[in-house]
Amino acid sequence: MTGVSLSRASVWRVLTGRLRWSLQRPERRAVERDESEIARWVTHEWPRIKKGR
Q1: pLDDT of residue 39
Q2: Interatomic CA distance for residues 38 and 29, integer angstroms
Q3: What is the pLDDT of residue 34?
Q4: Closest-CA residue to 8 (of 41, 36, 16, 43)
């Protein structure tokens, strides 16, 4: 669009230096996760939602 091309290293420097972005990774699994509620949702709610397609 602008005709400017940057290397990956340059993009990283712009994001972390000028824009103050940081590398963020999600946690493996939420502590509040309720396996029984997830199983209930998959067996009861998901089929109902899927039928509505």
Answers
A1: 95
A2: 13
A3: 92
A4: 16
